[in-house]
Write a structure and sequence with these properties.
One of its GO terms (cellular component) is plasma membrane. The protein is α/β, with parallel strands linked by helices. The chain is built from 10 helices and 14 strands. The chain folds into 2 domains: about 140 residues, Rossmann fold, CATH 3.40.50.980; about 120 residues, Rossmann fold. It is globular and about 55 Å long.
């Protein structure tokens, strides 16, 4: 049984990898690439902007964003200032959204510009500042300049401990209202380690990230990419019809699955991309033996099943 360090943290891992492997690609999205060093610099700048906005240690920040590189930067920036990240399902509307916001009691809400109108009728959001991310210009933080200008004073990060809560992840609520699971730094790194083992991750691998960044399936990969040295290839959302084309395009070596994903992909008509890829491992939960066998035979990929709970 591995021992998950109490002295190392997700943030110290970022700093170490930025110093040692700054030029390594950390993530990509829509033909844009973000190196580990670039991530570190943007995290520091974003943390400074959050601080100017009054966000500090222990504050909860609700985040309702799509998959993109800015979302990754914000995740680490919130850790930098010691805030608690509250990822919000981008499909929530009306009473479901109101419940999460009212229950979480965030100090700030960060949303895509296209989602900002959803909060007009959310009573739990009354009086809470809403900061938007515009598709063309990024986050609207203020500080007197465009988002990509380092015009806010940067500062050293908070002293984050292994037992500190990094984010509160709301469950799907299948047996009642969603429960806010408090995920500590150590818990995230344990999940990351288990994911690396389950997926046979090694330096230079590329993980296709189709799961939304409000889901543990995606978030658990953020420390993994730093620790092992893999690249995260983000896509906007899961698309059964375009899945293998995306796998081939980003040169993914690992894919993750949940629930009925394998069955959905098996029901798709055959294409030239079924085996025109570099992917060697599909890992996740929900792979009955006959489905795994059919999947391996058709797509020439090893299926590895594992189980985990947030």
């Amino acid at each position: 049984v591995p021992v998950i360090s109490d002295s190392q943290t997700t943030l110290s891992l970022l700093r170490d990898r930025a110093e040692r492997f700054g030029d390594r690609v950390y993530a990509s999205f829509d033909h844009q690439k973000l190196t580990v060093g670039g991530l570190y610099d943007q995290v520091r700048q974003t943390a400074a902007r959050l601080s100017i906005q009054g966000i500090s240690r222990g504050d909860r920040v609700a985040v309702m964003l799509d998959n993109h590189l800015d979302n990754l930067v914000l995740f680490f920036a919130l850790i930098w200032v010691g805030a608690v990240h509250v990822p919000v399902n981008t499909r929530l509307r009306h009473a479901s959204l109101d419940y999460v916001i009212e229950h979480a009691e965030p100090r700030m809400i960060v949303v895509e510009e296209s989602f900002s109108g959803l909060f007009a009728d959310i009573s739990g959001a009354d009086g809470i500042p809403v900061r938007t991310r515009r598709l063309s210009t990024g986050f609207d933080w203020g500080c007197g300049g465009p988002d990509n200008t380092p015009d806010c004073p940067v500062f050293d990060p908070e002293d984050i401990r292994a037992t500190d809560v990094l984010f509160i992840m709301y469950t799907s609520g299948t047996t009642g209202p969603p429960k806010g699971v408090m995920v500590t730094d150590k818990m995230l790194r344990a999940s990351s380690y288990a994911s690396a083992q389950s997926s046979a991750a090694k330096m230079g691998d590329i993980f296709l990230v189709w799961e939304p960044l409000y889901h543990i399936g995606a978030i658990q990969l953020l420390p993994l990419a730093l620790d092992v040295g893999v690249e995260l290839a983000l896509v906007g959302r899961f698309s059964a019809s375009r899945f293998w084309e995306q796998v081939s395009s980003v040169r993914a070596t690992q894919i993750h699955f949940l629930g009925g994903i394998l069955q959905i992909l098996l029901r798709q008509p055959p294409t030239i991309f079924d085996r025109q890829h570099r992917c060697r491992v599909a890992w996740g939960g929900g792979a009955p033996a006959h489905v795994a066998q059919d999947f391996e035979a058709r797509f020439a990929i090893e299926v590895r099943e594992n189980y985990g709970m947030t």
